[in-house]
Every structure is written in structure tokens, then in C-alpha cells.
Design goal:
With about 325 residues, this protein is of the alpha/beta class. It has helices at about 1-25, 45-60, 75-80, 95-105, 140-150, 165-175, 185-195, 210-215, 240, 260-275, 280-285, 295-320; strands at about 30-35, 65, 90-95, 115-125, 125-130, 155-160, 180-185, 200-205, 220-225, 250-255, 290.
């Protein structure tokens, strides 16, 4: 009986190889859809379209960005999980998936178990910013003033649990500060509040604030990357400016449903690496505040696991109520 069972499994594997062999050799033979859990027009959407366009040129098939925004990214992610594991439906997997595990009481999927990572695409850092005529000219100035007035500083971010919010909470924790994190619905309102001196500072992703930094209407005290951002070479990292070990980059990557053939994953990984390394892609993403970086599938999986643990600690310490 055991022998027959083993032979059956071998036969099944052989049939799978016979079935997939010709298809994999020709992959892709039809358009590929990338399910994006965000609305059109944001940094993630533009990044996905830049990469998708380059992949279309390389592979000769259209890459379609399908925007399916929802709380916790659930709609797009669940649809991707249920898709056929054939390489024609992909997921824009990102740092939000690592955070949502701690923000929701339950999810209809496991970001690690139910997906096969392919490659990261880019990391987009944030910045700690103040008004251009603020007395705080460095991160150390800001920290000293906040410590001198515990509980009285107000730092603006977007909605609670978002990338900006938890990055601010991590800064608060690692710098040993007690300030109020003030949530806003949209970035323009935060910028107005900072310029109007209703806020002492703000934590925001770079894309929407780079024009204000370069025009001089906002002052960036530090960026949240683990290295200086090429687009703002004179702005130090928070780690080097006064908070050793601090790092809080949002990241984007591409994944496929679990059980997608390894040959498909490997092919897509090679193509994404080539796309990300293209000079014009790197420059376009840099203009968006994105540090273009590809990875191996294994490295992306390790990143997802480590980020899930990291942000779980931050969410719990901040006592953010689960949804």
C-alpha cells in the first residue's frame, strides 16, 4: 500500500511537470494583473505603474495595475490569495501587510503562509519635518525641546495605524519622548497645520513633502531610512542625528499566490531585478522619494517576517486598538 501511494505521488508530480513544462517555457503568454491594495494616484500606485510599464517592455505582455483599495488592504489581498497560482495574478505586497497583522483581530489570510514573495521593488522613507522658521534646526534640538515640555508637543501624521503614525510612535519610543500624535485625514492638512504653527512637527512619507523641502517652506530634520536618501543628500538619518538604531521605511514588493511554480517566481524575480536596476526607473522612483531596491524571494520573505514582529511591538506599546 505504501509503495502504491509513493508511486501515485511520483506520478502526480510527473504529470504536473508535463503540464507546466511547455507553459513555463513560454511564460508569459497573456497579460499579467497586479492587484494593488491602494487607490490610484498615490506613491504605491505610481511605483507599480512605473515597474509594470518596464516589465511590459521586457516581457512583451501588458502588466495591468488593478486598484482595489480597502481598510487593511483586505480586498486586494484576499482576491490575490484566491487567484490561480499560474503567474498571471500578482499582489503588490508591502509593509502595510506586516502592520495589518497587528491592527486587525483576524484576517482572511496569512501574509507569510498564503503568498510566494518574488522581489521587493523599493523602499520609501519618511521624514521628521518642522516649519521653515522653527527654532528646531536639528533632531537633537527637537528632542531636547520635547523632553523639556512632556506631553505638550503635537506631531501630525495621517490616520492611526498608518505608516506615518507608527513611524512617529517608534520615534517617540526610541527617543524616550512623550508627545501627542495628532492624526489627520490627508497630508495637505498636516502641512498647513505645520506652516501655521498649530503643530510642532510632522512625520510624513517623502513623496508629497519633497517639493516643500526643496522650496524651503518646510525643514526636514531627518529621514527614516537606514542611510541617507540620494534625493536629499544633506538631510541626515534620524539614526545618525540623535536616535541610534532608528529605521522606519515603508516598502513595496511583488508576490504571487502560494503554490505558484518556482520557475515562474524565478523568471519574474529576474525581470523585476532588471526593471528596478534600469537607470530611468531608478531616477523616476527617486523623484517620488523611493529608494529602488530589488531582492531575492527569500530575502523578501525574511523582511516580511521581521517587519511583522517589529511593528507588532510598536502597535502594542502605542496601545492601538485592534479593528
Amino acid at each position: 500500500m505504501k509503495r502504491r501511494g509513493a508511486l501515485g505521488r511520483i506520478a502526480s508530480i510527473a504529470m504536473g511537470v508535463c503540464f507546466w513544462g511547455p507553459a513555463l517555457a513560454q511564460y508569459p503568454t497573456q497579460p499579467i494583473k497586479i492587484l494593488l491594495p491602494y487607490a490610484a494616484g498615490g506613491v504605491a500606485d505610481i511605483t507599480a505603474r512605473v515597474i509594470g510599464q518596464k516589465l511590459s517592455q521586457q516581457l512583451g505582455q501588458q502588466f495591468i495595475v488593478d486598484n482595489r483599495p480597502s481598510a487593511g488592504q483586505i480586498v486586494a489581498t484576499e482576491a490575490a490569495m484566491k487567484a490561480e497560482p499560474d503567474g498571471y495574478t500578482l499582489l503588490w505586497l508591502n509593509q502595510g501587510h506586516a502592520v495589518s497583522v497587528s491592527l486587525f483581530k483576524s484576517l482572511p489570510y496569512d501574509p507569510v503562509r498564503d503568498f510566494a514573495p518574488i522581489s521587493t521593488v523599493g523602499f520609501f522613507g519618511l521624514a521628521l519635518l518642522v516649519n521653515s522658521d522653527s527654532p528646531y534646526r536639528s533632531v537633537k534640538d527637537f528632542i531636547a525641546a520635547a523632553k523639556a515640555s512632556p506631553g505638550k508637543f503635537n506631531v501630525g501624521t495621517t490616520s492611526i495605524g498608518g505608516t506615518q503614525s507608527i513611524a512617529a510612535e517608534l520615534f517617540k519610543s526610541m527617543a524616550g519622548l512623550d508627545f501627542q500624535t495628532v492624526p489627520f485625514k490627508a497630508t495637505p492638512a498636516i502641512i498647513i497645520a505645520v506652516k501655521g504653527k498649530d503643530l510642532d512637527g510632522m512625520v510624513e512619507i517623502l513623496a508629497p513633502v519633497i517639493p516643500h523641502i526643496k522650496s524651503g517652506s518646510l525643514r526636514a530634520l531627518g529621514v527614516t531610512f537606514d542611510h541617507r536618501f540620494a534625493g536629499l543628500p544633506d538631510v541626515p538619518t534620524l539614526a545618525e542625528a540623535g536616535v541610534p538604531g532608528y529605521e522606519a521605511s515603508a516598502w513595496n514588493g511583488v508576490a504571487a499566490p502560494a503554490k505558484t511554480p518556482k520557475a515562474v517566481i524565478d523568471r519574474l524575480n529576474r525581470e523585476i531585478r532588471a526593471a528596478v536596476d534600469a537607470t530611468e526607473v531608478k531616477q523616476r522612483l527617486q523623484d517620488l522619494g523611493v529608494d529602488a531596491r530589488a531582492s531575492s524571494p527569500e530575502a523578501m520573505r525574511e523582511l516580511l517576517i521581521s517587519e511583522t514582529a517589529k511593528w507588532k511591538t510598536v502597535v502594542e506599546r502605542a496601545k492601538i486598538e485592534k479593528q
